[in-house]
User: What shape does this take?
Amino acid sequence: MTLLRLFAAGAALTAAFCAINAQTTSTMPTISFNPETVAASAPETKADATPEPLTATKAFADAPATVFPSIDRMTRLDMIDYYNSGSPKPSKNAFKGDCRILSASDSQITVATSKVSEVELSLLTQGRDTLLMVVTTLNTPVPDSSVKFYTARWKEIDKGLFMVPMLDDWTLPEAKERKKDLENAVPFILAKFTYAPETSTFTLTNNLGDFLPENDAKWVNPLMHKQLNYKWNGKKMVRQTD
Assistant: This one.
């Protein structure tokens, strides 16, 4: 009888424990997880924010050292601060020469990188992309320019956007009879390049006459174009006819 009572008591305790456990489980709140709800309530991150539009000033500040080798980034930022505050104070390039911003807008910035050199950085629109055109001008012995094109991330575009004019492009039709004389007198062309964002016009000004000896300049100048004009058509620079 004693063993039977012990077994009975044990069975009763087991049943009671199961009943209590079932009741507790049924009264616990159910927690559900909805990913869409959580995502909607999550705070906006920087990745979700709309990026600021590229400006010529920002492109100048972020340009690699290969584009502005004599002006480091911190100096460029100082130049921007001086210009925005209206201060005429120049900054110093790597050779202790003066450098400053001469003009700036959203689409173009012109910088004196030294006493004898300037850089004109312009933004060009090509479809949904923004391209960068960098014109470097040396003002000695007379102003002479070169031009390079880049993507917005400063990857150089080495062809397809502009063809540098040769002597034949600068020569007027009436100079055909003196072509050989011109080739001998003009070993290279000296021209200043400038871009006008408001009209998308790229102007090349012939400065060769100021470099040649006076006797040569007298007969060379009338046989050559004083200017060549190009237009950015959204894809490339296109020569404009006179």
About this structure: Confidence is low (pLDDT under 50) at residues 1-9, 15-20, 24-28, 37-42. The first strand starts at residue 91 and ends at 92. The chain has two domains: 52-158, 162-242.
